[in-house]
Task: inverse folding
């Protein structure tokens, strides 16, 4: 049985005292691809920001390898942050730096390695995402899919156990999105990385996800959870069934 690497307990997520999601409890297993799914504006990215420590919860806890992300301070918090890598929807690469320099940045910030070692590690990360030979380019010279890959390489610079991806397929054509899905699955399988992915792209979810939770805005919580193929085939949960099968709430009259 796989070990739990992330435990979210009774999380009330939102801004100030206004909860967007209430009483979320779920676990992410080591090495799995875990997807946070739901319609636009339901709070997926907000929950992710709480999980990585960018936002403090109104209440509840986020445990990474048994340690409380919110309560951790000083050296302990620094060590916890070293365990995670993050990519955001727009890739967030620094436009004035080359791709190689972007990947070297976290290594410069968090290690004391000499420059030649930083360069060697950064080039190795580029090979992992099939961008070998592109390190000299600026982000503006990359295609959308290449930017996503470069962002993943930077997220993996410090060899994190967990990588969080916010809408990785957003803005990509279907073929490029499918190639990115294959890359994520390959990294999870070969390196044992745990991926937590926020998305509403059904094709990607059904291709890569080991487990999902589905958030719903009006419900303010988890309306479905489990294996995506099972949710797609189970009409007992009306919302999840309609979502996965792209069935509108009101069918068009003939």
Result:
């Amino acid at each position: 049985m796989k070990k739990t690497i992330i435990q979210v307990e009774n999380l009330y997520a939102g801004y100030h005292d206004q909860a967007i999601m209430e009483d979320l409890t779920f676990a992410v297993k080591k090495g799995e691809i875990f997807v946070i799914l739901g319609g636009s504006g339901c709070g997926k990215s907000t929950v992710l920001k709480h999980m990585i420590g960018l936002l403090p919860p109104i209440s509840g806890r986020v445990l990474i390898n048994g340690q409380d992300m919110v309560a951790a301070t000083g050296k302990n918090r620094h060590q916890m942050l070293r365990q995670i890598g993050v990519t955001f929807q727009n890739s967030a690469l620094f436009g004035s730096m080359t791709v190689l320099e972007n990947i070297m940045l976290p290594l410069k910030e968090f290690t004391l390695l000499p420059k030649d070692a930083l360069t060697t590690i950064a080039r190795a990360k580029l090979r992992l995402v099939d961008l070998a030979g592109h390190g000299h380019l600026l982000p503006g010279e990359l295609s959308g899919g290449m930017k996503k890959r470069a962002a993943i390489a930077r997220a993996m610079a410090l060899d994190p156990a967990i990588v969080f991806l916010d809408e990785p397929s957003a803005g990509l054509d279907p073929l490029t999105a499918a190639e990115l899905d294959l890359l994520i699955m390959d990294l999870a399988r070969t390196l044992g990385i745990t991926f937590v992915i926020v998305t509403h792209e059904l094709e990607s979810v059904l291709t890569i996800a080991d487990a999902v939770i589905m958030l719903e805005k009006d419900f303010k919580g988890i309306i479905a959870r489990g294996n995506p193929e099972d949710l797609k085939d189970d009409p007992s949960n009306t919302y999840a069934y309609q979502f996965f099968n792209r069935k509108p709430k009101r069918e068009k009259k003939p």
Summary: The longest strand covers residues 4-15. The mean pLDDT is 92.
